[in-house]
Amino acid sequence: MPQCIRWGIVGTGAIAKKFASAIKQVDGAELVAVASRSQTSADTFACEFDVPQTYASYEAMANDSTVDVVYIATPHPYHCENTQLFLNAKKAVLCEKPFAMNAKQAQEMIACARKNNVFLMEAMWTRTIPENMAVRALLEQGVIGEVKSLQASFGFRAQWQPEGRLFNKALGGGALLDVGIYVVSYASMIFGKPPDTISGFAQIGTTGVDEQNAMIFGYNSGQMATLLSAVRSELDNQAVIYGEKGKIVVPRFWDATSYVLC
Fold first, then answer.
1. Of the candidates 68, 217, 229, 211, the residue with the CA atom closest to the CA atom of residue 147
2. Helix (H, G, I), strand (E, B), or coil: what is residue 52?
3. pLDDT at residue 1 greater than cutoff 60
């Protein structure tokens, strides 16, 4: 690998801007290109974040040999298509969450990465936060004994905008794909394996997306996870990990700044 990893960003929205700001703090990383479907949007973004190269098409950036890895920051429904474009160009990809719209798309993306022997990862930043890394270390050390269950919720009351991203089915709206992915990923992080059984219920709103949902993951080992997400109601917004000898409470687990060992 080169000493400096050269990044390109696909998309110019709010998440892309946060990533561009953050990568300036990373040693051994340089933001060298940005691509948008609009040259004006790409140029504006490049001016704000001092990006030397702009592209008005994703295909053009895929052909840029100076880009080593791309961050996909386009809307959910385009993740699969955009990711495969760059994987086929032999570029590593960090894809913004949710990774894909469904399992079929996710399988296609993984198969494409394997075919091209190129790195692919979902940008689930929650797993890399120091507090959550410390929580994993406590679990590995057996501080609360064997983990028996997890309760996690992430929900907020969004302003009602039927055509907005959160409520528009065509844009990948709904609680599960917006915030439910965090509780699902957290369960995967805590238990380190997929559930053996899944039960779920969703309240579907007038626009056809899930405005709130509840999931129970069961594991043959006897463990379980109870997970909630919502975009029309404020929830507890924390994770509680229950073990044989105690529990760990993680407020705002998705961007945790603390945890409590009980």
1. 217
2. coil
3. no
